[in-house]
Amino acid sequence: MNNSHFLVSIIVPCYNASYYVKDVLESIQNQTHRNIECIIINDGSTDHTLEILNGFSDERFHIYSHENKGLSDTRNFGLEKVTGDFTFFCDSDDLLPADAIENLLSSYTGKEDIIIGKTATYSWEEKKNISFLPHPEEKRVVENKNEEVLIQNMTEGLSPIAQNKLYRTEFLKDNNLRFLSGIYHEDELWFFETLFKAANVTFIPAVTYLYTVDNAQSITKKNSDKNLLGYLSVIETIYTRYYLKYPEKNAIAYYISYLKKIVIGNYKHHGHYSAEAVQSMEKVFKEVNPKFSDSIPLKSTEKKYFRYLNAISLKDAESIKKEYFNNPVNSLRKHFKILLFSIFGSK
C-alpha cells in the first residue's frame, strides 16, 4: 500500500524551549515523508522560543502563540488545527529520526487506529541513545476487542506517553478525544482513553522517537503534590467516565488498581507529599473501590495481586505504605501475603 499521499499533522507544544526547539523542528523538517504539516504552539514562553520559531520559513510549519495554558490545553489547541489524515505529537525537547513518520505510515493497511513505534531514551548533552522505553520486540498487530493493549500494559509495561504514536485523525475526532486540562500526568489518562477506544493497534520495532531524559525542567523528574494529585484525577476520571459507564468491561477495575499501584509505589519510595495531599489520596482510594471479575486474561496470581493491592489501598496511608509490595509475586513472603488476603480479605 502506497502511503506517501497521506498528510500527517505533527503537533509541537512549546514552553520556554529555546535550548532545544531549533534542533527539534529541524528533525521534523528533515522527515523523509514530506507530506506533513507541523502545528507549533508557543504556550506563553518567556524566553526566546517564539523568536526561534519565527525564524523558520517552511510553508509546512504553522506557528501559533497564546498565553500560558499548560500542556493539555496547548495540545488540545493543536488538535483543533489538525487537517491531516494522521496526528502525531512531538514534545519541544525530543527528536525524530529522519525516517520516523515514513516507518510508522508503512504499517498502515487501512484499518489501524494507532500505530506505535519504539522510543529510545536520549541524552541531549551527550547526543546519544541511552536505552529504550518498554515496547514489544517484534511487530505486533492487535485487534483490541477486549482491551488487550491495556492488559498488556498492566503485565508487560508499555510507554504511556502521548508522543510517538501515529493516530488516525478521524478516530480521534469520532471519539472526541481530548487531554484533561490542568493536571500532571495527563498522558496516563490519554493513554487509557485512546487505547480503550482503539479497535486496531499496531506496534512496530523501528525506533521512531528520541525521548530526552536529561531535561532538568521536566515535570516527570519531580515528585510533588501536583504529581500525586494528577494521578488521583486520572484514577477518578477513569472510574466515573468508564468503570461506571461500562460495567461489562472487566479490564477497567484491574487498570484502576494498576494505577493505584503506581501511586502507592511513588508514595512509598519517592514521594514527599503534604499531609493534605496524602489525605486526598486516602479519600480517592476509598471512593474508587471497583469490583473485580475473574473473566479477564490475567494469570491467577496477577488477579490476586491487583485485588490485594486495591484492598490495601482502602486503608490508612501508613498501613498502605507498610503492606505494599511491587510486582512480581515472586517470593514466599509475597505469596503468603496474597494467601492471607484471599482468606481474610482486607481486614
What features would you highlight for this structure?
2 domains, Spore Coat Polysaccharide Biosynthesis Protein SpsA, Chain A, nine-stranded mixed β-sheet, alpha/beta, 18% strand, Nucleotide-diphossugar_trans, 13 helices, 347 residues
What does this structure look like?
With 347 residues, this protein is of the alpha/beta class. The chain has two domains: 210 residues, Spore Coat Polysaccharide Biosynthesis Protein SpsA, Chain A (Alpha-Beta Complex), CATH 3.90.550; 123 residues. The protein contains 13 helices and nine strands. Strands 1, 2, 3, 4, 5, 6, 7, 8 and 9 form a nine-stranded mixed beta sheet that branches. Helix 2 links the parallel strand 2 and strand 3. The longest helix has 19 residues. The radius of gyration is 21 Å and the shape is globular. The model has no long low-confidence stretch (mean pLDDT 93). It comes from Chryseobacterium pennipullorum. This is Glycosyltransferase 2-like domain-containing protein. It holds the Pfam family Glycos_transf_2.
List the helices and strands and how they pair.
Elements: E1 8-14, H1 21-29, E2 36-43, H2 49-53, E3 61-66, H3 71-81, E4 86-89, H4 100-105, E5 114-123, E6 128-132, E7 140-143, H5 148-155, E8 165-168, H6 169-174, H7 186-197, E9 200-212, H8 225-243, H9 251-269, H10 275-287, H11 300-313, H12 317-323, H13 332-344
Parallel strand pairs: 1-2, 1-4, 2-3, 5-9
Antiparallel strand pairs: 4-8, 5-6, 5-8, 7-9
Helix pairs in contact: 7-8, 8-9, 8-10, 9-11
